[in-house]
């Protein structure tokens, strides 16, 4: 992917994933971490016999039954959609991605990484993937599973749950609390924490 940055005026992106890769959730997160875009071009392939060789493609099988990775892709896309403004506008050095250490994700894993002002320790017991983004005086966090974020480095203020609207505005849908710098995150929920 790094070669894509060498093409002047090019927006680096992956546009040729058919959705069949079992680690698609990780592939998309890695692209975002690198400041790139990612497109899954095949959600489901028709069961037309003339396309029999294509039935391996898609996030779902041709009969709409799930593949082993369908839920992981849907869960990941859910948090990406809710945090799209921060994902798109963040500086690469302030975008932390978690559970990319193997080509399929670890069932149990703890990782500690840092942005410019924040230290984030993330733990999963259920093969979650997660991100933490520092941007414009906030830290935005999300995980696909019920995982734990432990925060340090900066001073943290109020914690909001929410998402970005289609107009790019943050919409608060609730609040949460840090306990000793720890956030017990609900899978699929995006949190935005004020830095002070």
Care to give the gist of this entry?
By secondary structure, this protein is of the alpha+beta class. It has helices at 24-33, 70-82, 84-89; strands at residues 13-17, 37-40, 95-98, 109-114, 119-124, 130-135, 138-143, 148-152, 156-164, 170-176, 182-184, 190-195. It has three helices and twelve strands; from the N terminus they run βαβααββββββββββ.
Count of helices? 3
Overall pLDDT confidence: 90
Q: Kindly estimate the percentage of residues that lie in beta strands according to DSSP.
A: 25-35%
- Secondary-structure-derived class: alpha+beta
Biggest sheet strand order reads 3-6-7-12-9-10
Count of beta strands: 12
The major pleated sheet works out as: 6 strands, antiparallel
Descriptors:
196 residues; alpha+beta; Chondroitinase Ac, Chain A, domain 3; 2 domains; six-stranded antiparallel β-sheet; 12 strands
Structural notes for this entry:
The protein has 196 residues and is of the alpha+beta class. It has 2 domains: 77 residues, no CATH class; 107 residues, putative beta-Galactosidase from caulobacter crescentus (Chondroitinase Ac, Chain A, domain 3), CATH 2.60.220. It is 15% helix and 34% strand. It contains 3 helices and 12 strands, in the order E-H-E-H-H-E-E-E-E-E-E-E-E-E-E. The protein has a 6-stranded antiparallel β-sheet with strand order 3-6-7-12-9-10. A 4-stranded antiparallel β-sheet has the order 4-5-8-11, with no helix packed on it. Helix 1 links the parallel strand 1 and strand 2. It starts with 12 loop residues before the first strand and ends with a strand.
């Amino acid at each position: 992917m790094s070669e894509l940055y060498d093409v002047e005026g090019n927006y680096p992106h992956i546009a040729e994933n058919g959705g069949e890769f079992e680690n698609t959730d990780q592939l998309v997160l890695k692209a975002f971490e690198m400041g790139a875009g990612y497109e899954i071009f095949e959600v489901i392939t028709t069961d037309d016999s003339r396309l029999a060789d294509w039935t391996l493609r898609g996030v779902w099988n041709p009969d709409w039954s799930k593949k082993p990775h369908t839920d992981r892709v849907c869960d990941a896309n859910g948090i990406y959609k809710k945090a799209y403004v921060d994902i798109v506008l963040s500086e690469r050095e302030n975008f932390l991605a978690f559970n990319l250490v193997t080509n399929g994700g670890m069932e149990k894993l703890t990782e500690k990484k840092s942005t410019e002002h924040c230290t984030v320790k993330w733990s999963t017991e259920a093969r979650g993937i997660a991100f933490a983004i520092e941007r414009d005086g906030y830290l935005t966090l999300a995980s696909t599973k019920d995982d734990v974020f432990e925060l340090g480095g900066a001073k943290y203020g109020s914690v909001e749950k929410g998402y970005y609207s289609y107009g790019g505005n943050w919409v608060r849908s609730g609040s949460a609390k840090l306990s000793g710098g720890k956030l017990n995150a609900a899978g699929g929920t995006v949190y935005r924490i004020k830095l002070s």
